[in-house]
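Record type: ASSEMBLY
Status: queued
Input:
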Amino acid sequence: MTHDARRYAALPSPFAMKRGGELHGARVAYETWGTLSEARDNAVLLLTGLSPSAHAASNADDASEGWWEAMIGPGKAIDTSRWFVICVNSLGSDKGSTCAASINPATGEPYRLDFPELSLEDVANAAQVVVQGLGIEQLACLIGCSMGGMSALAYMVLHPGSVRAHISVDTAPQAQPFAIAIRSLQREAIRLDPHWNKGRYSDGSYPSDGMSIARKLGVITYRSAMEWNGRFARIRLDPERRDDNPFGLEFEVESYLEGHAQRFVHTFDPNSYLYLSRASDWFDIAEYGNGSIMEGLKRIRIEKAMVIGVSTDILFPLEQQEQIAEGLRAAGAAVDFVALDSPQGHDAFLVDIPNYSRAIGGFLSQL
Amino acid sequence: MTHDARRYAALPSPFAMKRGGELHGARVAYETWGTLSEARDNAVLLLTGLSPSAHAASNADDASEGWWEAMIGPGKAIDTSRWFVICVNSLGSDKGSTCAASINPATGEPYRLDFPELSLEDVANAAQVVVQGLGIEQLACLIGCSMGGMSALAYMVLHPGSVRAHISVDTAPQAQPFAIAIRSLQREAIRLDPHWNKGRYSDGSYPSDGMSIARKLGVITYRSAMEWNGRFARIRLDPERRDDNPFGLEFEVESYLEGHAQRFVHTFDPNSYLYLSRASDWFDIAEYGNGSIMEGLKRIRIEKAMVIGVSTDILFPLEQQEQIAEGLRAAGAAVDFVALDSPQGHDAFLVDIPNYSRAIGGFLSQL
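Status: finished
Output:
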């Protein structure tokens, strides 16, 4: 038996959003691992990609495997015998935090598209409420993966002095047009599904087709062509696994995508997906530097950072991690830049555990 | 005034298809430029990508600009004062050739999904009927771009001795899983559109949404992230050009994709798109070499070849053009391999005219 390990932090009410609008009675879900030291100086905050929950690893309350299970635990790269680790479910995500599927206290109905415009700055501010609520003045380290890496940049620029060290994983200082195009098309697939119905879907009339296309496009861009050449090549499905529809599944890679889509479609709220996806497009550290990425990053004051990227990432290409490393260095931090050749593309941080463990474990052990 | 410059070649009836099935009373459309020499030894055949018509350039009958206008004409890289150039519309394409939208003589109704399974070998065989019908025993050069490059490999392996020289442009000896995944998702977007209706759509009930998603995904993968960084960056649309729909267009890159989609959706028959897309996934030169790409290519007997590819092409990556070059070389041809750094991705052959002109013009001038 596993239990819900989530805790909840109430956000100040009203909670003002960056682009206008406010939330009343909102909360974010989080989980923790390890023990906060008396000096409260061993806290590590983890901000996630678009879809994961706060359940990054198993813990006493929930023994089920987390999404970064191999990285977090006693003796692992993020060593919970030393660090007090907090993972926050993004504001706007439906894994326990207030989101478009939550009840709007003003109407008693779900927000749906009445949820205010969401930005990663709001995600960062909500996470900071959790940290503050735990009595932590300064994080020993802030780790952000993928979208969470952008939320982390927002956190540091909005809360000067709140972070000592930072680990930036497979992320970017702003969305480039290729990533915007991909995410825009994912959103369009959902919006064009007649069952989306301008956000007013139900379990019985649900935009499964749009979500399926969005997820498949996600998986295609999260992985890499190189990995798939070795993994799937041109292998056909056994005849009994093919589907009978015209132009239906025939190749192993198609079945792999179908499996991913099936597992995702009903486990993520479509409207929440739209909000978080657009927030990723909007984020731009250059907004804090008069239009310059470098100037924006130079406003971040931390002591040390490690910036990790992968040469096979097409969504957050390596030169974007180089920009982050350069900018943080120009701001005065001691920065390690780690360029990996993992074949798994953007998702390498979830798959290439040996390389990410070595880098992250090595960095944390020297703090 | 421009006139239809198309000519038509009747295919043998029945025309047997590679995967079984046959066509009766089928034809393919083609256009020509220049004059066939008395010795009939100056013919250049051009096989196209998935969507272009046979109208590769303006000519006496149709003054409108063709899809490779800058490359074909007197004094241009494909110099029509010397060469007799033929461009064939692929069998299965709706630009004049028999396709899924054509009338099935057995029923008097459009074929729709009763069109037999289409392969690029069928496309190649239909093109060869045109060449034969013009009394040409051997092509001076066979040029194939993108999907047409795969059709060209099929042509050469199926018709030994029919080609002296070959120019392979941005193509592959087989579809890799990344390309299959992209095309599968494009087909799925069309198939999931309720208006597709298992192929039984009409002008009034047409799968526009599915075609739009398919086209946008195509354009995303035909270009490159690098080009878009320079071209679109994070430029927003003027407020009056945004759409009012929730999560509607906001960035310039989204508007660019929308424009491409709008121009395409009603100018290509959706069922024909499905057939040609799947034919691209199916093609595999290794079928002619006991499962080996190299052995398959080694069965192609030509004198000279030029193989061109682009480092920014994510759909047909450069290593696939290297394979073609190696294989043709191993088969005994003198092969020039040209690796370009054009930023435009797979579509570079349509855009980077200076580099493609220089390469193709140089090669042809030495024949």
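Annotation: The radius of gyration of chain A is 20 Å.
Annotation: Chain A has two domains: 7-174+284-365, 179-274.
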